[in-house]
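Friendly challenge for the regulars: who can give me the structure tokens for this chain first? No prize, just bragging rights.
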Amino acid sequence: MRAYVLSIGSELIAGHLTDTNATFLAQELAAKGIELLHVVQVGDDLERLTRVLGMAVSEADLVVCTGGIGPTDDDLTREAIAALTGETPVVDEEIVAGIRAFFAQRGLEMPERNAKQAWVIPSVDVLPNPVGTAPGWFARVGDAMVVAMPGVPREMFRMWREQALPRLSDRLTGRVYRSANLRTLGIGESAVSHLLDELTQRPRPYVGTYAKDDGVHVRVTASADDPAAAEAELAETVAEIRRRLAAHIYADDDRSLPQVLLDTLRERGLTIAVAESGTGGRFGSLLLSEPSASGTVRGTTAVADGETAQSAGDLAAMAREQFGSAIGLGVSATVEPVAQGLYEGSIVAAVSSPHPAEEAFPIRAAYGEIQRRAALNAADVLRRALASG
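First reply, four minutes later:
Bragging rights claimed.
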């Protein structure tokens, strides 16, 4: 099966939003063995959208659209699908009642223009949206299937997995796909690729490396004619990747980086406090971004670069004493501007505990990147300190 992804909305074309939906769908399609031909962003123009959608259905078996199914005049995805099918949309009063109930549960009255979200055409299956007001469409345009879903990621993710995928399952090939995602810290993408060497070059199982905000990810996808063979192929490759990257892998599940750190602290009955200088408080904010930080993170402090002469080790000891935690972590970024918006200096992360640790990292980057890297460096130093203790 071949597919297109159409990301619809002028806010994408103007660069006001990042198209995370397309990334999600590309990964989902690959995991199901669906060949993705193109990802196309289209603005809110009916003639242009209809033309691009027509091109997509002529080349692909599946076209997945996100965005453009809201209640306003510039939400035009339904109109484009209807134009290609030659069918006229009508309002489904049962769907309208559901949308009214959605607003009523929140103490609101439905604006009448939201009735547009209850449009249907005779050949379409409506995809329920339990967390929003915009139902999706599963349509046939010629020989192609067209899935239209909301642009809001949390609504689209759920609709794709609960509504769209089950409707596609009987049309997929019998080939079985299994995948794993290993996340690493303290190593760059080129170094990961070098260590994996021939694993990234062979056609199957597929091994890809991706630089992300929380480290370098290694994605493995295996395929076979039956589940046992696919799982065996995946397990063998994952075991070899673990052998080569053992010191750097921090997760192979869906937990975020702060979740992994907090889970490790909690499993050992440890609490932590953080003090930062010149980092924008990024590491403390990273930990506090998780609801599970309560009870484990005793406190965080942050000051601008130059406001304190304390070293990272001093900051760690101060945080530990001030908040009465089992572990103190100090992070210090000392940098100077050099040229063209770049800063140069060093990041130092230190752990105050019965198993202390400290490490310095040279840095040359834009200031925002220095703060991001400081948080990752601190996370890696803490991770390794916990592993050694």
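The CA atoms of residues 210 and 313 lie 33 Å apart. DSSP finds twelve helices and 17 strands in the chain. Your move, everyone else.
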